[in-house]
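To assess whether the prediction recovers the assembly geometry, we first specified each molecular entity separately, as shown.
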Amino acid sequence: MHLLDWLIMLGTLLGIVAYGIWKTRNVNNVRSYLLGDKDLPWWTIGLSIMATQASAITFLSTPGQAYEDGMRFAQFYFGMPIAMVILAIFFLPIYYRLNVYTAYEYLEGRFDLKTRSLTAIFFLLQRGMAAGITIYAPAIILSSILEIPLLFTNLFIGVIVIVYTMLGGTKAVSVTQKQQMIVILTGMFAAAIILVFKLPKDVGFGDAVAVAGKMGKLNVVDFEFNLNERYNFWSGILGGTFLFLSYFGTDQSQVQRYLSGKSLSESRLGLLFNGLIKVPMQFLVLFVGILVFVFYQFVQPPLHFNQANVKVVESSEYAADYQALEAQHSEIYQLKETEIRNLITAINAEDEIAITSHQSTIQGLLDQDIQVRKEAKEVIKQANPDLETQDDDYVFISFVMKYLPIGMVGLILAVIFSAAMSSTASELNALATTTIVDLYRRSISPEQSDQHYLFMSKLMTVLWGILALSFAMVAPLADNLIEFVNIIGSLFYGTILGVFLVAFFMKQVNGRAVFWAAICGELMIVFIFWLTRFGYLDLAYLWLNLIGCILVMLYAGFFNFLNKKLG
Amino acid sequence: TWPRLYALVLFCHAIIIALFYLLTKMYS
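The predicted structure of the complete assembly is given in tokenized form:
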């Protein structure tokens, strides 16, 4: 990497952190530390919410996903604006009226202490592990791309986040997120524009979109109702709405962002702003992946996108096998490029018969290429069985490193590090807040001084940070850890949302009924997950949120009825 | 004012989905 890229990357990242620390140098009481000074305007809240949700993996994996699978993933976010409106109407006024620090605090007033503690512990369990993955997932990719040890990339993300989150609390998180989000949006826009200019001279933007469409990559909306299809309109609108209601309404890492707003109106506007901007933003990130795909129809792509793996196989006894596959890949590419140029000519001539003919030839070549790439992964596995051969996450970043101009590489790396830091900062801040407010100050050590709780909040931020960093360090030793953490998230979300919806809409239900409803609902969700895991049931995981939520509400109603019957 | 704003957000979202659908249909 060029010296200028290093300077741009480090200058951007450290500049934002220094600004955050300087802006929050006067934070000296626990309320200010955990809630900011409640003075954020709507657009800062909106950007802060977006920065919390968009982790580094959003910008590494999503373009790769579009490259392999097209734009279907955009549907995952279709429920988001609906969830934002429901939150603005029902959740926010209650949080503001009761002046709470955390979402779970409200549950004690509505139900009882054990329900509050149960939901807080559910949150700490899932978010505590997820924070480790937020650091580890980009760290391993960046360590491979930058050719520096994983230990350094882990520490670089983890230590910087711990320092500024510990020093400035919630406000440091919000003011840095505003800057980080501006860097992220600028970087992705610039990448999209440069990509268009990188296309061959005789291939215009319209041709690029037409080629992507004819090759099946512009599949943004699918109205077919299919329960085991992960991304379609219905899973996005129904499953997605419940997932985002739960994530934005009951996950403290998000709740804390809008609780530090200047007023109820500013927080509502921040949520609505986020709801409207998020879908187009995801579209932009996916579209960058589509442009990379079209670019690689006119410039030969590597057979395997993770160059570290390629180096291993090329210095092993399987080098000859790999080279044979590379020759096949190259031959397919030459044929495909010729066919695609013919397809563009046919599209411009509006010759439907020729379009269909070229389309089916290209599809055949694409299928052959997929097979060759699959065989390449098997050869890599033979060279070293411990290597991770999924290379989707490397598609975008390897393109950036090889084809973007000097300066832009540094900016895109700043985007990825910024996204990792902004998500991790929110998580550590929320974990510390929930630990102190819902457990320590409420049940373990009440009646202490404000300065004591301020010190303990800072200490908890550091402890959760060290735990997340340790988790990121041991992650390479565990198989399928990322998948495990994601599953843990979707197992708890529905239940927690169910408890909140019972609190809001089933006024007659008491604490005892909802506590046992949450326990039974959670056990049922684990059982349903087990059925899908071992093939007894075919169900996309997005539906688990909806089912968990409905189960808790049904159980709560039933237990409440029993309570009354039995006196 | 707020209900009108909520309706506007959902209306804009519906327009965005309609545009996506148009993109899917036009280029498939």
